[in-house]
């Protein structure tokens, strides 16, 4: 079940009302594809093309004025042979055939495992393996490409999700109405999880490339990421990683180093372009 990952190996919309908005949408999609292409050395830009929606986002019957919180879960723990992806957006998700096709364009085998309903909405679960190996996805850059492809499709076919997703700021029609306070949103905790590994929990403001960056920071201090789960919940990202140091649980001093490194990275202010 454990997935061992070395450093560097864990990675718009239809119905717009004006030509200006259409050009802005196209520019955002180019920026999105450029980012994924640069972070995915193993994939060509052609493999990352996402099918265009032919009309405004189709929403299922029963839509209300309240836009639900979109959630994308990438689960490396629950299945030993496949990466499990779960997508939730209230009751608004359809068959997600376009999303499945977009994931296949990344060189993946995608099996729709099941759909189920609960109080939070309709959950669509997929089992994903690499087409070349038939094994679960271990590369963090490819995992990030999977996440961004799903979010891009959400923004394309459900543009109303733009106001609820952190990615809506860069790639959606309308940015989120509220901004996340990075200091308040950032939480890093490390727990003992038996003699051979520890459990790292990270919660932070979401942004493109976050999954890849988290794994790089962890592995840069010689800590191994064995498996985990990465959740996108609206404006936030929540990561749970099983980690170890030389096949043992992380000592208390090293836990503190890890937590401090992640907090510094997640909370440090971004540099304004004007400062260069």
Index terms:
ACR1-12, ACT-like_dom_sf, alpha+beta, amino acid binding, 7 helices, 276 residues, ACT domain-containing protein ACR, repeat, eight-stranded antiparallel beta sheet
Give an overview of the whole structure.
This protein has helices at residues 19-39, 97-104, 140-157, 168-171, 182-185, 210-220, 252-267, and strands at residues 71-75, 83-88, 108-118, 121-130, 187-192, 198-205, 224-233, 236-244. By secondary structure, it is an alpha+beta fold. The protein is built from seven helices and eight strands, in the order αββαββαααββαββα. The radius of gyration is 19 Å and the shape is globular. GO terms for molecular function: amino acid binding.
Please render the helix and strand layout as text:
Layout lengths: L18 H21 L31 E5 L7 E6 L8 H8 L3 E11 L2 E10 L9 H18 L10 H4 L10 H4 L1 E6 L5 E8 L4 H11 L3 E10 L2 E9 L7 H16 L9
Antiparallel strand pairs: 1-2, 1-7, 2-4, 3-4, 5-6, 6-8, 7-8
Helix pairs in contact: 1-3, 2-3, 3-6
Q: Helix segment count?
A: 7
Q: What structural class results from the helix and strand content?
A: alpha+beta
* Distance separating the two termini: 46 Å
User: In which range does the helix fraction lie?
Assistant: 25-40%
Mass-distribution shape: globular
As residue ranges, the low-confidence spans are: 1-63, 271-276
Query: Widest sheet: strand order?
Result: 3-4-2-1-7-8-6-5
How many beta-strand elements? 8
Largest sheet: 8 strands, antiparallel
The whole-number mean of residue pLDDT values reads: 79
Radius of gyration (Å): 19 Å
Q: Strand content of the residues, in percent?
A: 15-25%
What is the H/E order? HEEHEEHHHEEHEEH
């Amino acid at each position: 079940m454990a997935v061992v990952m070395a450093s560097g190996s864990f990675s718009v919309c239809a119905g717009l009302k004006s030509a200006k908005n259409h050009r802005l949408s196209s520019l955002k999609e180019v920026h999105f594809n450029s980012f994924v292409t640069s972070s995915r050395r193993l994939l060509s830009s052609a493999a990352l093309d996402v099918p265009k929606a032919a009309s405004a986002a189709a929403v299922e019957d029963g839509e209300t004025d309240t836009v639900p919180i979109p959630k994308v879960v990438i689960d490396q723990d629950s299945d030993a042979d496949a990466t499990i992806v779960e997508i939730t957006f209230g009751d608004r998700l359809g068959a997600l055939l376009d999303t499945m096709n977009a994931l296949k364009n990344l060189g993946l085998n995608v099996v729709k495992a099941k759909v189920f309903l609960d109080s939070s909405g309709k959950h669509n679960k997929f089992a994903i393996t690499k087409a070349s190996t038939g094994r679960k996805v271990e590369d963090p850059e490819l995992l990030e490409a999977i996440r961004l492809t799903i979010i891009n499709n959400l923004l394309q076919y459900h543009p109303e999700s733009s106001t609820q997703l952190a990615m809506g700021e860069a790639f959606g029609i309308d940015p989120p109405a509220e901004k996340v306070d990075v200091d308040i949103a950032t939480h890093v905790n490390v727990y003992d999880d038996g003699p051979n590994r520890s459990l790292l929990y990270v919660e932070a403001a979401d942004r493109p490339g976050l999954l890849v960056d988290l794994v790089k920071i962890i592995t840069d201090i010689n800590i191994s990421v064995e498996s985990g789960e990465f959740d996108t919940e609206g404006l936030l990202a929540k990561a749970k990683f099983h980690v170890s140091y030389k096949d043992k649980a992380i000592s208390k001093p090293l836990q503190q180093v890890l937590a401090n490194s992640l907090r510094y990275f997640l909370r440090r202010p971004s540099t304004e372009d004007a400062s260069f």
